[in-house]
Design goal:
This protein has 272 residues and is α/β, with parallel strands linked by helices. It has 2 domains: 211 residues, Rossmann fold, CATH 3.40.50; 47 residues, no CATH class. Helix 1 crosses helix 9 and helix 3 runs parallel beside helix 4. The radius of gyration is 18 Å and the shape is globular. It binds NADP nicotinamide-adenine-dinucleotide phosphate. One of its GO terms (molecular function) is oxidoreductase activity. It comes from Thermosporothrix hazakensis. Belongs to the short-chain dehydrogenases/reductases (SDR) family. Pfam families: adh_short_C2.
Length: 272
Protein backbone atom coordinates (compact mmCIF):
# COMPACT_ATOMS: atom_id res chain seq x y z
CA UNK A 1 0.00 0.00 0.00
CA UNK A 2 1.45 3.43 -0.96
CA UNK A 3 1.86 6.21 1.63
CA UNK A 4 -1.27 7.95 0.30
CA UNK A 5 -3.18 4.78 1.14
CA UNK A 6 -1.82 4.72 4.70
CA UNK A 7 -4.09 7.38 6.18
CA UNK A 8 -3.51 6.13 9.73
CA UNK A 9 0.28 6.43 9.61
CA UNK A 10 1.47 7.85 12.95
CA UNK A 11 -1.67 6.77 14.82
CA UNK A 12 -1.60 4.33 17.73
CA UNK A 13 -4.56 1.97 17.99
CA UNK A 14 -5.74 -0.55 20.55
CA UNK A 15 -8.07 -3.21 19.16
CA UNK A 16 -9.34 -5.39 21.99
CA UNK A 17 -10.01 -9.06 21.29
CA UNK A 18 -8.12 -9.06 18.00
CA UNK A 19 -6.87 -12.66 17.89
CA UNK A 20 -9.72 -13.81 15.67
CA UNK A 21 -13.06 -12.95 14.12
CA UNK A 22 -14.10 -9.34 13.68
CA UNK A 23 -11.35 -7.93 15.93
CA UNK A 24 -8.64 -9.61 13.89
CA UNK A 25 -10.05 -8.18 10.65
CA UNK A 26 -10.18 -4.70 12.23
CA UNK A 27 -6.62 -4.91 13.60
CA UNK A 28 -5.22 -6.07 10.26
CA UNK A 29 -7.21 -3.45 8.33
CA UNK A 30 -6.05 -0.56 10.55
CA UNK A 31 -2.50 -1.93 10.41
CA UNK A 32 -2.62 -1.95 6.59
CA UNK A 33 -3.78 1.67 6.78
CA UNK A 34 -0.55 2.50 8.62
CA UNK A 35 -1.58 2.51 12.29
CA UNK A 36 0.59 0.97 14.99
CA UNK A 37 -1.70 -1.66 16.51
CA UNK A 38 -1.92 -3.16 19.99
CA UNK A 39 -3.48 -6.59 19.53
CA UNK A 40 -5.11 -7.92 22.68
CA UNK A 41 -5.85 -11.51 23.63
CA UNK A 42 -7.51 -13.14 26.61
CA UNK A 43 -5.92 -16.59 26.27
CA UNK A 44 -4.85 -17.20 22.65
CA UNK A 45 -1.33 -15.77 22.72
CA UNK A 46 -0.27 -17.70 19.61
CA UNK A 47 -3.10 -16.24 17.55
CA UNK A 48 -2.21 -12.77 18.84
CA UNK A 49 1.39 -13.27 17.69
CA UNK A 50 0.13 -14.33 14.26
CA UNK A 51 -1.85 -11.10 13.93
CA UNK A 52 1.14 -9.05 15.10
CA UNK A 53 3.28 -10.73 12.46
CA UNK A 54 0.73 -10.07 9.71
CA UNK A 55 0.57 -6.37 10.65
CA UNK A 56 4.35 -6.09 10.76
CA UNK A 57 4.60 -7.77 7.37
CA UNK A 58 2.20 -5.13 6.06
CA UNK A 59 4.69 -2.50 7.23
CA UNK A 60 3.23 -1.27 10.53
CA UNK A 61 4.24 -1.69 14.15
CA UNK A 62 2.29 -4.09 16.34
CA UNK A 63 2.40 -5.43 19.86
CA UNK A 64 0.45 -8.26 21.55
CA UNK A 65 -0.80 -7.66 25.10
CA UNK A 66 -2.97 -9.80 27.36
CA UNK A 67 -6.17 -8.26 28.71
CA UNK A 68 -9.18 -9.81 30.39
CA UNK A 69 -12.28 -7.60 30.45
CA UNK A 70 -13.30 -9.27 33.70
CA UNK A 71 -10.16 -7.97 35.44
CA UNK A 72 -10.10 -4.16 35.53
CA UNK A 73 -6.43 -4.16 36.53
CA UNK A 74 -5.53 -5.81 33.21
CA UNK A 75 -7.39 -3.08 31.30
CA UNK A 76 -5.45 -0.37 33.13
CA UNK A 77 -2.26 -2.31 32.53
CA UNK A 78 -3.07 -2.48 28.79
CA UNK A 79 -3.29 1.30 28.55
CA UNK A 80 -0.19 1.83 30.73
CA UNK A 81 1.86 -0.59 28.60
CA UNK A 82 0.60 1.01 25.37
CA UNK A 83 1.47 4.51 26.60
CA UNK A 84 4.83 3.30 27.78
CA UNK A 85 5.61 1.59 24.47
CA UNK A 86 4.11 4.00 21.91
CA UNK A 87 3.77 7.23 23.94
CA UNK A 88 0.07 7.79 23.14
CA UNK A 89 -3.26 6.22 22.20
CA UNK A 90 -5.18 7.72 19.26
CA UNK A 91 -7.79 5.04 18.61
CA UNK A 92 -9.55 2.50 20.82
CA UNK A 93 -11.70 -0.23 19.28
CA UNK A 94 -13.64 -2.00 22.03
CA UNK A 95 -14.29 -5.27 20.23
CA UNK A 96 -13.53 -8.02 22.78
CA UNK A 97 -16.40 -10.12 23.96
CA UNK A 98 -16.99 -13.57 25.39
CA UNK A 99 -19.66 -16.12 24.59
CA UNK A 100 -23.25 -14.94 24.60
CA UNK A 101 -25.56 -17.23 26.55
CA UNK A 102 -28.90 -17.29 24.77
CA UNK A 103 -31.55 -18.84 26.98
CA UNK A 104 -35.17 -18.19 27.80
CA UNK A 105 -35.48 -15.59 30.55
CA UNK A 106 -37.12 -18.20 32.78
CA UNK A 107 -33.98 -20.37 32.62
CA UNK A 108 -30.93 -18.05 32.67
CA UNK A 109 -28.84 -18.46 35.83
CA UNK A 110 -27.33 -15.64 37.83
CA UNK A 111 -23.85 -16.91 36.95
CA UNK A 112 -24.68 -16.75 33.22
CA UNK A 113 -26.10 -13.26 33.61
CA UNK A 114 -23.01 -12.12 35.54
CA UNK A 115 -20.62 -13.63 32.99
CA UNK A 116 -22.07 -11.35 30.29
CA UNK A 117 -22.39 -8.21 32.40
CA UNK A 118 -18.85 -8.66 33.79
CA UNK A 119 -17.63 -8.10 30.23
CA UNK A 120 -19.78 -4.99 29.89
CA UNK A 121 -18.22 -3.61 33.08
CA UNK A 122 -14.83 -4.18 31.46
CA UNK A 123 -15.87 -2.19 28.39
CA UNK A 124 -16.93 0.66 30.69
CA UNK A 125 -13.51 0.73 32.34
CA UNK A 126 -11.77 0.55 28.96
CA UNK A 127 -13.81 3.62 28.00
CA UNK A 128 -12.73 5.22 31.27
CA UNK A 129 -9.07 4.61 30.43
CA UNK A 130 -9.69 6.08 26.97
CA UNK A 131 -11.40 9.12 28.52
CA UNK A 132 -8.29 9.66 30.62
CA UNK A 133 -5.62 8.99 28.03
CA UNK A 134 -6.84 9.25 24.43
CA UNK A 135 -5.17 11.93 22.32
CA UNK A 136 -7.06 15.01 21.10
CA UNK A 137 -9.01 14.23 17.90
CA UNK A 138 -8.91 10.57 18.87
CA UNK A 139 -11.43 7.94 17.88
CA UNK A 140 -13.33 5.47 20.06
CA UNK A 141 -15.47 2.73 18.51
CA UNK A 142 -17.26 0.03 20.50
CA UNK A 143 -18.96 -3.07 19.16
CA UNK A 144 -22.57 -3.73 20.10
CA UNK A 145 -25.04 -5.88 18.17
CA UNK A 146 -27.85 -5.19 15.72
CA UNK A 147 -30.02 -7.26 18.07
CA UNK A 148 -30.43 -4.20 20.31
CA UNK A 149 -32.68 -2.92 17.51
CA UNK A 150 -34.22 -6.15 16.21
CA UNK A 151 -34.91 -7.87 19.54
CA UNK A 152 -34.82 -11.63 19.78
CA UNK A 153 -36.20 -14.26 22.14
CA UNK A 154 -33.63 -15.75 24.56
CA UNK A 155 -31.28 -12.80 24.09
CA UNK A 156 -32.48 -10.42 26.80
CA UNK A 157 -29.43 -10.52 29.08
CA UNK A 158 -26.91 -10.60 26.23
CA UNK A 159 -28.57 -7.77 24.32
CA UNK A 160 -28.98 -5.81 27.55
CA UNK A 161 -25.26 -6.17 28.21
CA UNK A 162 -24.49 -4.73 24.75
CA UNK A 163 -27.17 -2.00 24.92
CA UNK A 164 -25.40 -0.61 27.99
CA UNK A 165 -22.30 -0.07 25.82
CA UNK A 166 -24.39 2.03 23.43
CA UNK A 167 -25.44 4.27 26.33
CA UNK A 168 -21.88 4.52 27.71
CA UNK A 169 -20.85 5.73 24.26
CA UNK A 170 -23.57 8.36 23.91
CA UNK A 171 -22.55 9.88 27.25
CA UNK A 172 -18.84 9.74 26.47
CA UNK A 173 -19.38 11.38 23.06
CA UNK A 174 -20.82 14.34 24.93
CA UNK A 175 -17.98 14.37 27.45
CA UNK A 176 -15.10 14.25 24.98
CA UNK A 177 -16.43 16.23 22.01
CA UNK A 178 -14.67 19.43 23.12
CA UNK A 179 -11.34 17.70 22.45
CA UNK A 180 -12.33 16.59 18.94
CA UNK A 181 -12.59 12.97 20.14
CA UNK A 182 -15.41 11.01 18.51
CA UNK A 183 -17.17 8.12 20.23
CA UNK A 184 -19.30 5.77 18.17
CA UNK A 185 -20.77 2.28 18.14
CA UNK A 186 -20.83 -0.31 15.37
CA UNK A 187 -23.60 -2.87 15.71
CA UNK A 188 -23.01 -5.89 13.48
CA UNK A 189 -25.70 -8.22 12.33
CA UNK A 190 -24.88 -11.92 12.21
CA UNK A 191 -21.27 -12.07 11.03
CA UNK A 192 -19.59 -15.18 9.71
CA UNK A 193 -16.58 -15.85 11.89
CA UNK A 194 -14.30 -18.80 11.12
CA UNK A 195 -15.00 -21.82 13.25
CA UNK A 196 -18.21 -20.63 14.83
CA UNK A 197 -21.73 -21.82 14.28
CA UNK A 198 -22.45 -18.88 12.00
CA UNK A 199 -19.65 -19.99 9.71
CA UNK A 200 -20.97 -23.53 9.49
CA UNK A 201 -24.42 -22.26 8.66
CA UNK A 202 -23.27 -19.72 6.11
CA UNK A 203 -21.08 -22.21 4.29
CA UNK A 204 -23.98 -24.61 4.09
CA UNK A 205 -22.30 -27.38 6.08
CA UNK A 206 -24.60 -29.29 8.43
CA UNK A 207 -23.87 -28.93 12.11
CA UNK A 208 -22.46 -32.03 13.75
CA UNK A 209 -24.63 -32.13 16.83
CA UNK A 210 -24.76 -35.94 17.13
CA UNK A 211 -22.64 -36.10 20.27
CA UNK A 212 -24.68 -33.50 22.11
CA UNK A 213 -27.50 -34.17 24.54
CA UNK A 214 -30.97 -34.05 23.03
CA UNK A 215 -31.92 -30.62 24.31
CA UNK A 216 -28.61 -29.23 23.04
CA UNK A 217 -29.29 -30.70 19.59
CA UNK A 218 -32.69 -29.14 19.59
CA UNK A 219 -31.22 -25.82 20.65
CA UNK A 220 -28.75 -25.97 17.77
CA UNK A 221 -31.40 -26.93 15.26
CA UNK A 222 -33.50 -23.95 16.28
CA UNK A 223 -30.43 -21.74 16.18
CA UNK A 224 -29.58 -22.89 12.66
CA UNK A 225 -33.15 -22.31 11.55
CA UNK A 226 -33.01 -18.82 13.03
CA UNK A 227 -29.76 -18.00 11.22
CA UNK A 228 -31.26 -19.12 7.92
CA UNK A 229 -34.26 -16.88 8.58
CA UNK A 230 -31.94 -13.95 9.24
CA UNK A 231 -30.04 -14.57 6.04
CA UNK A 232 -33.28 -14.78 4.05
CA UNK A 233 -34.58 -11.57 5.66
CA UNK A 234 -31.41 -9.59 5.02
CA UNK A 235 -31.95 -7.17 2.11
CA UNK A 236 -28.38 -7.64 0.92
CA UNK A 237 -29.03 -11.41 0.79
CA UNK A 238 -26.20 -12.79 2.94
CA UNK A 239 -24.70 -12.79 6.42
CA UNK A 240 -21.89 -10.35 7.21
CA UNK A 241 -18.14 -10.96 7.09
CA UNK A 242 -15.49 -9.61 9.51
CA UNK A 243 -14.21 -7.46 6.62
CA UNK A 244 -17.66 -5.85 6.25
CA UNK A 245 -17.39 -4.71 9.86
CA UNK A 246 -13.72 -3.69 9.54
CA UNK A 247 -14.70 -1.45 6.60
CA UNK A 248 -17.17 0.42 8.78
CA UNK A 249 -14.70 0.78 11.64
CA UNK A 250 -12.09 2.04 9.18
CA UNK A 251 -14.52 4.74 8.07
CA UNK A 252 -15.32 5.81 11.65
CA UNK A 253 -11.68 6.11 12.72
CA UNK A 254 -10.69 8.10 9.63
CA UNK A 255 -9.94 11.83 9.73
CA UNK A 256 -12.93 12.32 7.41
CA UNK A 257 -15.32 11.02 10.08
CA UNK A 258 -14.55 13.88 12.47
CA UNK A 259 -18.13 15.19 12.33
CA UNK A 260 -19.68 11.82 13.29
CA UNK A 261 -20.01 11.21 16.99
CA UNK A 262 -22.51 9.61 19.37
CA UNK A 263 -23.77 7.43 16.51
CA UNK A 264 -24.66 3.76 16.32
CA UNK A 265 -23.94 2.36 12.86
CA UNK A 266 -25.93 -0.82 12.30
CA UNK A 267 -23.72 -2.81 9.95
CA UNK A 268 -26.18 -5.56 9.21
CA UNK A 269 -26.92 -5.70 5.48
CA UNK A 270 -30.07 -3.66 5.92
CA UNK A 271 -31.91 -6.02 8.27
CA UNK A 272 -32.39 -3.19 10.79
N1 LIG B 1 -19.91 -12.51 15.14
C1 LIG B 1 -21.14 -11.98 15.17
O1 LIG B 1 -22.09 -12.48 14.53
C2 LIG B 1 -21.41 -10.72 15.96
C3 LIG B 1 -22.68 -10.12 15.84
C4 LIG B 1 -22.94 -8.96 16.57
C5 LIG B 1 -21.99 -8.42 17.38
N2 LIG B 1 -20.76 -9.01 17.48
C6 LIG B 1 -19.77 -8.37 18.36
O2 LIG B 1 -18.56 -8.19 17.64
C7 LIG B 1 -17.44 -8.37 18.51
C8 LIG B 1 -16.52 -9.45 17.97
O3 LIG B 1 -17.24 -10.66 17.82
P1 LIG B 1 -16.57 -11.98 17.21
O4 LIG B 1 -17.68 -12.90 16.85
O5 LIG B 1 -15.56 -11.62 16.20
O6 LIG B 1 -15.84 -12.56 18.52
P2 LIG B 1 -14.90 -13.87 18.69
O7 LIG B 1 -14.55 -14.44 17.37
O8 LIG B 1 -15.57 -14.73 19.69
O9 LIG B 1 -13.56 -13.24 19.35
C9 LIG B 1 -13.62 -12.73 20.63
C10 LIG B 1 -12.34 -11.99 20.94
O10 LIG B 1 -12.45 -11.46 22.28
C11 LIG B 1 -11.41 -12.01 23.10
N3 LIG B 1 -11.95 -12.31 24.42
C12 LIG B 1 -12.75 -13.34 24.80
N4 LIG B 1 -13.03 -13.26 26.11
C13 LIG B 1 -12.39 -12.15 26.57
C14 LIG B 1 -12.26 -11.55 27.84
N5 LIG B 1 -12.86 -12.06 28.94
N6 LIG B 1 -11.51 -10.44 27.96
C15 LIG B 1 -10.88 -9.90 26.88
N7 LIG B 1 -10.94 -10.44 25.65
C16 LIG B 1 -11.70 -11.55 25.50
C17 LIG B 1 -10.93 -13.27 22.38
O11 LIG B 1 -9.55 -13.50 22.74
P3 LIG B 1 -8.96 -15.03 22.84
O12 LIG B 1 -8.85 -15.51 21.41
O13 LIG B 1 -7.63 -14.88 23.50
O14 LIG B 1 -9.96 -15.80 23.62
C18 LIG B 1 -11.11 -12.88 20.92
O15 LIG B 1 -10.01 -12.12 20.49
C19 LIG B 1 -18.02 -8.71 19.88
O16 LIG B 1 -18.12 -7.53 20.67
C20 LIG B 1 -19.39 -9.25 19.55
O17 LIG B 1 -20.31 -9.10 20.60
C21 LIG B 1 -20.45 -10.15 16.79
Amino acid sequence: MSESKRPLAGKVTIVTGSTRGIGRAIAQRLGREGAAVVVTYATNVDLAREVVQAIQQAGSEALALQMDLREIATIRHLFARTLNHFGKVDILVNNASGLATLKPTAKLTQAEYDSMFDLTRGVYFALQEAARHIADNGRIVSLSTAMTATGSPTSGAYVGSKAAIEQFSIALARELGWRGVTVNVVSPGVTVVNGNTHHQIASGRPLDASSLPQDEQEKRRLYQERMEQIRAATPLGRLGTPEDIANVVSLLVSAEAGWLTGQNIRAAGGIV
